Amino acid sequence: MWIPTEHEKYGVVLASFRGTVQHGLPLEIGDTVQILEKCEGWYRGFVHKNPNAKGIFPCSYIHLKNAHIKNKGQFETIIPTEDSVITEMTSTLREWGCMWKQLYVRNEGDLFHRLWHVMNEILDLRRQVLVGHLTHDRMRDVKQHITARLDWGNEQLGLDLVPRREFGMVDPDEISVTELYRLMEHRHRKKETPVPASTHHLFVQVKSLMSSNLGEDLDVFFYIYDGRESRPLSERFFVRLNKNGIPKSPERQCTLFVDLGSSDLRKDVYIVAHIIRIGRMGAGEKKNQSTVQYHRPFGCAVVSIADLLTADSKDDHQLKVYACTTESEWYQIHDNIIRKVNSRYNLSGSNTGLSVSLQLLHGDMEQLRREYMVLFTRGVSVTKKLGFSDIIMPGEMRNDLYITLERGEFEKGGKSVARNVEITVYALDIDGQILKGQVAAGAGEPGGDEYHSFVLYHNNSPRWSEQIKLPIPVDMFRGSHVRFEFRHCSTKDKGEKKLFGFSFVPLMQEDGRTLPDGTHELIVHKCEDNVLLQDSTRYLKLPFSKGNLPGNNQAVKGSKESFWITSFLCSTKLTQNGEMLDLLKWRAHPERINDSLSKLKDIDGSEIVKFLQDTLDTLFGILDESSQRYGLKVFDSLVHIINLLQDSKFQHFKPVMDTYIESHFAGALSYRDLIKVLKWYVDRIIDAEHQDHFQQVLKATEYIFKYIIQSRRLFSLATGGQNEEEFRCCMRELFYSIRFFLSQESKGSMPVAHTQAVFLRTFPAVYGELLKLFSMREVATFVHDTLGSLPTTPKPDCPLEAVKLQCIAKTVESQLYTNPEVDLIVEKLLAVLLMTILEITNRPQPSGKHTPPAVPDVTGEFVACLLALLRQMSDKHYEKLLQRFTSKDDLRDFLLQIFTVFRILIRPEMFPKDWTVMRLVTNNVIITTVLYLSDALRKDFLNDKFDYKVWDSYFYLSVIFINQPCLQLETFSPSKRKKVLEKYGDMRVMMGCEIFSMWQNLGEHKLNFIPAMIGPFLEVTLVPQPDLRNVMIPIFHDMMDWEQRRSGNFKQVEAKLIDKLDSLMSEGKGDETYRELFNSIIPLFGPYPSLLKKIERETWRESGISLIATVTRLMERLLDYRDCMKLGEVDGKKIGCTVSLLNFYKTELNKEEMYIRYIHKLYDLHLKAQNYTEASYTLLLYDELLEWSERPLREFLNYPMQTEWQRKEYLHLTIVENFDRGKSWENGILLCRELADQYEAYYDYRNLSKMRMKEASLYDKIMDQQRLEPEFFRVGFYGKKFPFFLRNKEFVCRGHDYERLEAFQQRMLNEFPHAIAMQHANQPDQTIYQAEAQYLQIYAVTPIPESQDVLQRDGVPDNIKSFYKVNHIWRFRYDRPFHKGTKDKENEFKSLWVERTTLTLVQSLPGISRWFEVEKKDLVEVSPLENAIEVIENKNLQLRTLITQCQTRQMQNINPLTMCLNGVIDAAVNGGLARYQEAFFVKDYIVNHPEDGDKIGRLRELMFEQAHILEFGLAVHEKFVPQDMRPLHKKLVDQFHLMKSSLGIQEFPAYVRASPIHFTNGSPRTCRNSAPNIMCPEGGRVVARRSPLTYPAVNRYSSSSLSSQASNEVSNITGQSESSDEVFNMQPSPSTSSLSSNHSASPNVTSSAPSSARGSPQLPDKHKHSRENACLSPRDRPCSAIFPNPLDPTQRMNAHQMGDSTLPRSEPNISTPDKVVRPAASSWSLDCAKEANTLPPTPDRFLAPPIPPRPPYTVGSPAKNTRSQSPIPTLRSPQKSSAPPFTPSPTECQSAGLVSNSPALSGSYSSGISSLSRCSVSEASGTEGPPTGPGSGSGSSSGHGDAAPLQPPSTLLPNSASSGLDELGPRRDSKTPPPYSVFERSNSRRPVPLPHSLSVPPQVDPPALPPKPHQMRCAKPDADPRRPPIEPPRPRALPRKVSQL
Predict the structure, then answer these.
(1) Element (H or E) spanning 1162, and its range?
(2) Using 50, 70 and 90 to split pLDDT, how confident is the model at 221?
(3) Are strands 237-241 and 217-226 parallel, antiparallel or unpaired?
(4) Among candidates 1789, 1792, 1736, which has minimal Cα distance to 1766?
(5) Which of 131, 668, 1138, 1582 is within CB 3.0–4.6 Å of 715 for a Cys-Cys bond?
(6) Where are the beta strands (DSSP E) in 1560-1666?
(7) Are 237 and 255 in contact (CB under 8 A)?
(8) pLDDT in tens, 243-260
(9) DSSP string, 84-110
């Protein structure tokens, strides 16, 4: 039976447990578990890292640990009872572990490795702590180290700052808020600017001196020297070295220079080492000459302390040693080295160096002893600073006198040379006895009885600058003196030292003062006998210093001999200050008291603190004895001393004063005088001009009160409490004065506020003192009244607010407030707090865009104080507080204030980013307070007392509260989330429930908050907390209901909802779950039904459901948009998403402002992606919304305030600029023209001129610059994982320049890395659509241009045509070959069908995006026979084009023509056209397909025609073929005759012979076009994409059935000889065979094409026509572009019609002169150009045999025009006559209806029958609907106008205007007319006889200007050919309300 555990609650897993038993819980070693129940050796519980999974596990696997249990029962939490540092380490390391792995994933290698090391280090330290073998000190150090490491890691990982005290984490509930704030601030400051240690120490260790000329002992003296002030900063450190330069005593080679201040660590502070040798006088003297040792200068080394600041570790330094050039300069050698006076010193030897180890240490000595124990165990000596350290500690004992031997002036003494002077120094006591061991050369070596100076050779004015230290005890100072003996050191006479004089100086003067610091000139007394010196009493009566000689002693004064010393005393007990001594001995000299008290302020602070207790006793003694006379002065002196202890240098003496007050102070009567003087000062503050002194007095208030209170207590004890009432009365009067002074406001130049601030700073410290004598209630009254007297109108920039709040903060913390009895000050404090916070945070900022106010600096303390106050408040407090507001207005003001303050506290900038602990405490206090105050709202501000402002403030606060980042628990780590939930719960849900409850209470007042609160509440519902959403979403139903009641609809709710949704979701709020929740019909958990469910019950459900649907769809798009806008997403996805959203705003929501915003976002995206054309179209959307009017527009986005005309002008210019950059110059021209019209209308000729020049420059660019034609790709996005705007949709995309299918496919897969590319072109099934995956289906498609007129027109350069082939394209085509029925292996053409798919887009490309969705798909099938007809038509057209180009010399070389001829003729030998004969001319086929009779006739006709063209082509070829290719030409001629015979052609039929071939880019036959009406605007031309027929189609190789060995030869002969022009004009063709895959071109042929022109490798099996080929590019794909030609049976040519068609006809509608007589056959010749008598003869004559003319024929329909012949020559110039507008150029001579420029026709040079050509002949025929009327078409010139030499004498095409309009009715309007009017050119054409059905009056007026590019885009392809000629303008999508935008 399972029993709940009592004590076994917490454990650690010892071994991993798999959990394979039933209900088993898998455990990993190291996991911590919480145990709930126990049963027979098994526990039941959960692992802490996953508390939701509960299960059982064996007891033996768990090591139990002690733990505290909180909230026993269902929700109990376990806290391990181990060291808090261990607990923190464990949880922190767990948290780091997850983040550490993420660092690796994010490739942050540096931090990854650093954190790894730190984690290992922490684990190691944790082990040490757990083992528990550490000493107390070591444990403290380890913990400090651990917390430092934890803080570092938390900071690096962006985790929260942990408040700590004594290394342990602090529970915010267990300390006051103000204390928490201070801890946080302290840690924050420490983190931001590590507090530099105030004291520093220099560790020095002497290693050795290296020199080649040693051999004598050395003394080395180190000291720290200030180069700026040229004085030593420390005493000397003294080391003795032996003859080898090694320290004599290894234990004395180290020292610590202590107590260096931060100011001493600068560049010009140096470590100086003086080296003195001990030995002979001269370094080179013989060894045995003298036994006497002298101290002689050797060298000096210097190093700057700045060099050590950078080095952390103990570094060895090799110091260079320098020697003096002249010995007399020795005293300043270090200065010369520092100042680099090179002439005065030099290196003492090239290899001389002093090796020392130097290290800077920081912190106080206690810390150093802990951290560097090794140093102190080594017996390191301490070298003190000269003078006291920056901080003087009480109890510090020091009594050091430093004497520096400066210099001397001596006489020669009868010698011829100067003396060698040595000084010996002795310290003697009062009895004249030498003080043993009291003369020290420096630290390091023990002191001696005497000291010998060094000797300067032959120098009567020696300068030593040697410092010695006399550590004489204090009690021996009086009467002691120092004696200096001077001896001459002779180098002769065995080197004896002869005494010649002495000086002395007493250490203390008669009055008890010590020897004053400074330089003293001592008298040198002559003496040559030691006897005189043995009795000190004999010479002590003599004068010692020249400075204090009596005036009559001129003899001594005039003596030339003198000796100078500098003395410096550093003593904690002795003073040199006479004023100080006078004050202490005031009873001896009462007359000096006044003087002494006045001079106290001038005495150095260190002197006062030395005698602090004595001084205080003195002051109170004087006060007790003569209070009337000296009261004020004593008070001032006391204030001076108190304030002195505020100084950081002396702050440690405060405890000394506290101890004095408690234990030693005895002034029982002083309180009266102190109160009296203090009140006297307070009363005079207001009127005083200078406030400084008063501020000093008030600064000392705390200690003055301490003295007052202690004095009164002493008095009460002594007298049994007498005069109590008098004392209380005095105190009340004092406080009255204080209150009066505090209530004053600053007037004029008297800054009373500063003085008030000084008082308030010290005031809280007084409370504790007052409580010693007064009751709690009395003190509270004092405080309440005092704080209440402050000015109530705070002024900006007044220092008082800050201090006032600090004062209140301290009040809240004091025992006054924590005592539950006192509620007195609550109200007052709260009011003051709120006012002050409001004032400070709302203080006007300086103008200009500055950062937000640095609130924490000013308000942090106050906020903490306010929170502490509120946290202490109980229900009783709140009740009292609210009862105190007598009027409703006061309560209203209070609530508004407190809500505003709370809003300020929630601001993100209120606390630093990582102060989550502080923020959570703040929020907890706020929500508690708000819950209390909401009752007041309900009670006092509802129904008839309703106050909108208070409620609005409440709701606004609640919304901000819920949305603040620090409460979004979803963003926290699991452990942090758990901690927050355990401690505070989810405060957002609590606040949400409160909002809901308050909203329900509002009743009809809800209407006041609609629509204002929709946005804020929507923001709350977007928080991803299910409970919160469930509570808040029903409020929207309520809003809709109330709005419906009020106005009959809820348009306001809808508008606000949509506006706000956009801004909120773009900020990153909301998610997919939210969308589902909003739209959900399933009732939500909890008592609230879903929003939709609620709406369905209402009468207004339809509009409600529609709103929900709209909002849901908007969310879909916004979520997609947000996901796409994330960093790292590709531009394509961003653009597509923005387009989707933009269209939604325009079409569904009609939100113009949002629409315009997204237009600009899309524009920016396009610019970034360098899609300049798309950017222009996008901006054009906004441009279209504006008119050319003077209406003023407001400032919007980046646009200034301007008129509509100015903005439209700016937009026009920007769009033109972008069209220019995108090479879409035709579109730019239209806008230039429109702008020019505006400028002209305003007579702005300057701008008009610029605009016309711009327009001209665009025309130039069209003609001069090369434009690449993009490929187009159809992309299908299938599967549920795609964003909504792509999901299960098809798009056509415009590729980038040079981008082929493979590159595009790769790009798409990169954009959608999880997508799977489908390898077929079949329509996917439902499983793919519904799959939880991404599928991409991509294949290339061919554009179907709309602008047939331009493309069909002769003489239009390719540069112009190229634009129309790939711009304004609505429809695209894709062909897929397949076999129907059984496939004949011998001849696959019998069953080869083509499935042709036409895609229609929602918008034309290019547009506002690079891709648009497919709106409509049409599918037709092309039969094998029709396919064959198309293929041969295409090949014939290609041949004609090449022949014409050759004739007109448009080709630089003849290779393309050679290749094409070779491909067709040579293939014929291997089967070629014969395959079609086998397939379609056999009896079986004709019998089985009687309906195909016409088509078979047509095919035969085309084959004959091809042979005819080939014959003519060979004739042309012969003329131009180079000599080395003659053999190939001969071979082609021979094979051509074989081909003719194989076709059974002896002579060409008449109708073939009559067919003229000579025209540019034309076709030698009539086109059998089923839909002639769509070919051109007026009648019928077909358009083509750039194809081999529109310009020199260089190297269009393909593997064709008609190819053979000859193609190899051609490729080998021609090689790579195409010119650059040809390469640019080249368009690769599909490379598949149409007849049979056995006859493919050789690899040589293929490889000779440039790579861009080649398709995939020409492998035979590549070209099996299978579905798999469907994904290939147009260049690689079989049959990629054959146009369907489903011919109507009525249009087919019957046999009798064929016969008739050769005869001339009489047309009833044509007048006699216009009728044309059929010319004789002989009138046709190859060289027809010579008949054009209006032009100069062409230089090149063709010698090919004449070809008989071919009779024009019609194919059973009037749509096919007859070719009319006339002997009359035609005028060549198109400009002469005013014929109808759009006719083919005069160089054309072709049959009507011919498809000349078929889009992207393919085929190849090697094939005449390439069945799967890139595009097919009748471009838009099969898909456009049934033909409805006649039309004519003409081929378009390949681009060079009238330059064609082949010209029939009088053959004209019927002009377009008159040919098709009659039958067609209103002509089908072309979607995309040219951007500038090609209609305006008038062509001189004679009318041509037409069939009566087509005869209409000619249309002479040119059509209107074509529409703008956006109108072109707006037009949509329509299947109805009978559209009116002019499409009505599309209505604007949006209502005209852009007035402000």
Answers:
(1) helix 1152-1168
(2) very high
(3) antiparallel
(4) 1789
(5) 668
(6) none
(7) yes
(8) 888 999 888 889 999 888
(9) HHHHHHHHHHHHHHHHHHHHHHTT-HH
